[in-house]
Amino acid sequence: MTHTSDVIQAVDERPPRSASQDPVRAGAKLTGARRPANLAYGLDEVPPPSALVLNGLQHVGLVTIYLVYPLLVFRAAGVPIDVTAGLMSTGMIVLAVATFLQAKRLGPVGSGFMCPSTFTASYIGPSLLAAKAGGLPLVFGMTIFAGLLEAVLAPMLNRLRAILPPEVSGLVIFVIGLSGGIAGLRTLFGPQAEPVLPSEWCVGLLTLGVMVALNVWGRGAARMFCALIGLVIGYVAAAIAGLVDASAISVVVAAPWFGVPKLHFSWSFDLALVAPFAIASVAATMKAAGAITVCQRMNDAAWVRTDMKSVTRGVLADGVSTALAGAVGAVGTNAATSSVGLAAATGVASRSVAYAVAAILLVLGFLPKLPALLGVMPRLVIVAALLFAVSFIMINGLQIMMSRLLDARRTLIIALSLTCGMAIEVFPWISTATPVPLAWFVGSSLVLATATALVLNLLFRIGVRKTATFTVKNGEIEPEAVERFFQAQGATWGARPDVVKRATYGTIQLIDAIAADYLHDGPITIEMRFDEFNLDVRVTYRGEQLTCPERRPSLAEIRESEAGARLLAGFILRRNADRVRTEWKDGRACVQFHFDH
Amino acid sequence: MKNGGLSIDIDRTRAGNVCIVTLAGRIDSSNAKDVLAELTRLMDSGETSLLVDLGNVLYLTSAAFRVLLVATDEAERRAIRFALCSLAGHVLELFEMGGLVDVFAIHHSREDALKQLS
């Protein structure tokens, strides 16, 4: 049986007539995207030079807050102040390259979005472990491993969904925040830490207080730059309180105004650190994928669901950047969700801004006085900034966990994993009493919590697949009955309402399209299958097969015949589901919709 | 689908020289013809500006999109101003999925539309 050709060229016979929406296209990189009206500068638009520089500086201000992460790692590795300053310069150049790679689209690398890179809390815990175990060469070697792993994971993101459902990924992000905060506090209160002076307490509380106050009660720029303002005030207060010692000031004074940073080519590898770095890499992968998805939505008013192609390219760029960071002497990088948030708030999503950010970071990398100033930052100021930053990471993790209905399975996954992870923080001697290779999994709270969640998730998948069937008699087609069936099953199974709604619409649209001419005798059978990560709908009927073209039929075709409307139905069905498959055998047609859940 | 157009309500109001047709419910192949018949009747009766309010529509199938395209074409042929308004949530998503947002004159709200059409 053959119908109209599958591929029909969509040609609009007349110019767009939308009165309220500007039909400016977002360019070749975002084919079919519609520019949202609330964007001041779209992806391919170039702001005037002053706006470009100001926006670039804003993003650089946000990104530099996270320089406290490498600073903490270099301190833990016992790196001298002057060397730390050099490494911070290298870090800025790495961020410049990473931001450029993400925006430019070179070969298969780069999403093409304005999504600057920064250092991430994900690698803090593992990097501190590596710094303690093998110094900087081990930090950098393991960072290369983490980056390469992220690059390998990039094309497999869809398959990871079953292994990393929201309750597991949310838990990983939550524990990254919590363990990062505890790691920072350990530098103050750990067994080898110098006692905290009363003046240090004051500086720490002032720094954190300013950040919190501006974030909670501040407005506009004060709120946006609360962390940066807190850092500067804390730094000044520390200098007044005499907490910045003379040798540190002399390093800053001695640093030249211009200089080329020395790259650090020394790497080592430790099998015992594979698990923590692999978990951090997976967390960075998820964060990068999330940031790129936000970019897609921000740049496309017609966004329906995640375009995995640009996510894969973006995550690949993120992984390559982290590997590059390890190769030249920096810690792991990640897409800066705070910068993406800033772009959404300001409506400036132009790719040119990403180039401006990269250019500014590159220039800063060649001005050694600034990294030297960062390098001698008092420890209480760093920890205050860290605690502030990880608060948002923890809440982000909680929100992801709570995005699903917490049934018995998910409750146990979250609670048992969290308890196991926290046990390592409270009873650190557990790991020394555990034999290798099991010790790799109990070496850090992040690893044990994640490993427990992964194992429980796989175990609890037993018996989760459910099936329900509904039969529609020919001549008694009622869309309300189909809606009731989907709603009842969706509620019983705890399926996401938005996915159930798409499945319901797809089925109703299909039945509506075939009812008049394509349906012969006999009933229509609807089979719904659900297993937490997939919702599959299979509709079978005796009759002709519906064509689902990849391109919309022309307006003339739709207007002039029922066949054109049917092709439009097929086109909508293809876009409504994540995958559509049609079959026809022995007079029976079968249409299968797949929805990622 | 079910005959008799039971799943849709068609209501008419007037604001100045604009005739507002409010559709509510599900628009599919069973009632799309009723919608087209009503729009054609209004055009025949000499209306110069027609506004279709889709704010209370639950969903549209391809049959409904076809009817709206036919009505748009007919209105253009007769030099009648024809616009849609109040597309929200799922309905707006369906227009986007069908690649049809730029094909119609679409206004965010009834008030916006009346400002343009009056």
Number of helices of chain B: 4
Overall pLDDT of chain A: 86
- Strands ordered across the widest β-sheet of chain B: 1-2-3-4-5
The arrangement of helices and strands of chain B along the chain is: EEHEHEHEH
Stated plainly, the CATH topology of chain B is called Transcription Regulator spoIIAA
What is the overall number of helices of chain A?
22
Shape of chain B: globular
Give the biggest beta sheet of chain B: 5 strands, mixed
CATH superfamily of chain B, please?
Answer: STAS domain
Largest sheet of chain A: 5 strands, antiparallel
What is the second-level CATH architecture of chain B?
2-Layer Sandwich
Oligomer: heterodimer
* Count of all domains of chain A: 2
CA-based gyration radius of chain B: 13 Å
Task: Please provide the count of β strands of chain A.
Answer: 7
Portion in helices of chain B: 25-40%
Spatial order of strands in the largest sheet of chain A:
3-4-5-7-6
- pLDDT averaged over residues of chain B: 91
Q: Could you say which structural class the secondary elements and strand pairing of chain A correspond to?
A: alpha+beta
- Distance between the terminal alpha carbons of chain A, to the nearest Å? 34 Å
Explain briefly what this protein structure is.
With 597 residues, chain A is of the alpha+beta class.
Structure in words:
The complex is a heterodimer of chains A (597) and B (118). Chain A has 22 helices and seven strands. Chain A is an alpha+beta fold. Chain A has two domains: 38-404, no CATH class; 466-596, Heat Shock Protein 90, CATH 3.30.565. The longest helix of chain A is centred in the first third of the chain and has 30 residues, at 124-153. Helices cover 39% and strands 31% of the residues of chain B. Chain B has four helices and five strands; from the N terminus they run ββαβαβαβα. In chain B, α1 packs parallel to α2. The longest helix of chain B is centred in the middle third of the chain and has 16 residues, at 62-77.
